[in-house]
TrEMBL record:
Protein name: DUF2029 domain-containing protein
Organism annotation: Nocardia uniformis
InterPro entries hit by this protein: GT87 (IPR018584)
Alphabetic keyword roster: Cell membrane, Membrane, Transferase, Transmembrane, Transmembrane helix
MF GO annotations: hexosyltransferase activity
Amino acid sequence: MYRAPVFLRQLEPRTARTTSEVLNFALWPIAILTVLNRVFIKAVNGSITDDFRPVYNASLAFLNHKAIYTANFDSTDPHYLYPPSGTLLIAPLAILDPERSRWCFILLNAAAIILAAYLLLRLFNFTVNSVAAPALLLAMFMSETVINTLVFTNVNGCILLAEVVFIHLLLQRRDLWAGVIMGLAIAVKGPILAPLLLIALVRGQWKVFPTAIAVPVALNLIAWPLIVDWKEFWTHTLPYLSETRDYFNSAIVGNAAYYGVADWLTWIIRLSLAALVLISLWLLYRYYRDDEVFFICTSSGLLLTGTFLLSSLGQMYYSMLVFPFLMTVVLRNSVLRNWPAWVAIFGFMSYDKWLSDRWQSSGRTLEYLRTTFGWGLLLIVVFCVLGDRYLAARREGRLREGQTLDPAWMHPEADAVHEDTSRNGHAREVVAVPTTQPSTS
């Protein structure tokens, strides 16, 4: 009697016997079909917004030794803003014709996002057979940030992968390689991931910095002689990057410029939120730095969200870079286990449009501000959760060195040791596997 190979037997229709199997059988087909729709239908169809065209044109100009940094910044079309090092790395795109090159770039970013999802599962000790795998894949490819990254065809998927690999390498203390990955991300996309270097700094992982600095510097030195107008990047493009634009900009200053908010009020809002971020980062460092996965992923989300919101430019699809932070919801002490956090996340992750034919002004305001409010509310939620834990721990006398702010119910194994000590006068040996340790397999 013929027996199908093992990998094919996994696809045989079976009746689920457990809740986990039911969820797996339901979510995997939905997740896979959603991925296929986003990659081969929505992304290939494209959009009026085309981030790929200026990148391809710049790559073609580079290969033909023509001027690259010639964008007219008076228009609202996507501009080519990559540094010379980024131009050097993406130049192979122009070897193919524009259509096939775009398809390859879509596939590259889709593959990077899927690989990043797998690495996130490993980071939080989940396997591909767990319910978390299809749930994460579906959530990612249902989000605005992934859909528009693929449809507009930009490099954000690769930057997400670089971020997740950087976090893995930090946890494994492979500092030089972590610096290489960060350096490559900076070389392509500029300093968008650079705030994460603060995490390496406070953890004392100094070896990250030499390679993180050397890689983009070396690539720029190689690229400059090959770009006929490399000086224009410094005199024409870089000044534009430091300006605040009032379109396609969800940062506080962008929406403030669009709605005509007074400068003094804009600064008060920015400084107030910056203060919340700094206090939250201090609490994380002071009380959670030994809880490595929680500390690194929560701090990374806080730093990046704060950068998007408080800098001169923040675009909605940058939110892809907070996926490691959002995955912390599976941890017992996550700061995201409350409904206001998910109201905030809906604001900057949902693909829904709030433009209304009936209430045009209100709908337009909701659509333009939802990302800004979502990022802002997330920062406030993190501050409030950590602040509440700090005040509760101070009332209960738990502010001791090396102890987290978590109440006892978040760590039942520690509670069991405390109870055993109280009854017997000494603690019996307990072997427990921390739920927040990274996978090393």
